């Protein structure tokens, strides 16, 4: 059993993410952009993929519902990596420091199965992680208690010696309910202070 470990979220902790990063390139009018993100490619609709629904089902259904926006719905499927403009400042440096210190690293991410397979190979930082649980693959999403139970079992960790890092308060509370200490991420400086206080970093 791994006595001490750190478990990261991915979106908005390690990497920035917002659907606007893609669609602001494709829709010039600000009002039209807001309407589109509020009615067509909405976060709620996107989260169906995070929960395990295949793009092969989602995209044709949405195209049929909004035929005038079919090209934009196709862009969502084909250009999703453009919703992720780059790393959160400072976060990947902390991953490298933890890895150099020999701290076992894991991740639990709400991320669609298809999109993860398109994004993961572009980011060698994930080679530092021993295992990553992807919601769309497991068909379990944070903060479902089952995803934390799966992580404890599959990672082989002692939850009492683990620290979970997430920007979402509900996900933080879910980890704490599973017996894992948690840090609500706001920025890398705050996380660094927490890691030093807990003895993960010198």
From TrEMBL:
Coiled-coil portions: none
InterPro entries: HAD-like_sf, HAD-SF_hydro_IA, HAD_sf
Domain of life: Bacteria
Database matches in Pfam families: Hydrolase (PF00702)
Name under which the protein is recorded: 2-haloacid dehalogenase
């Amino acid at each position: 059993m791994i006595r001490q470990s750190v478990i990261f979220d991915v979106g908005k902790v390690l990497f920035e993410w917002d659907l606007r990063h893609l669609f602001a390139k494709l829709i010039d009018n600000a009002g039209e952009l807001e309407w589109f993100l509020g009615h067509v490619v909405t976060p709620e609709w996107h989260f169906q993929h995070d929960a395990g629904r295949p793009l092969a089902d989602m995209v044709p259904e949405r195209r049929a519902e909004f035929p005038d926006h079919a090209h934009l719905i196709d862009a969502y499927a084909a250009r999703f990596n453009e919703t992720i403009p780059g790393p959160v400042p400072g976060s990947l440096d902390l991953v490298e420091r933890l890895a150099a210190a020999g701290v076992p690293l894991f991740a639990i991410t709400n991320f669609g199965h298809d999109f993860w397979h398109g994004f993961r190979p572009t980011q060698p930082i994930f080679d530092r992680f021993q295992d990553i649980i992807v919601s769309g693959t497991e068909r379990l999403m944070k903060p479902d208690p089952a995803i934390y139970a799966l992580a404890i079992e599959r990672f082989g960790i002692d939850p009492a010696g683990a620290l979970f890092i997430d920007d979402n308060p509900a996900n933080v509370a879910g980890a704490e309910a599973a017996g894992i200490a948690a840090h609500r991420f706001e920025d890398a400086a705050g996380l660094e202070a927490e890691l030093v206080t807990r003895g993960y970093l010198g």
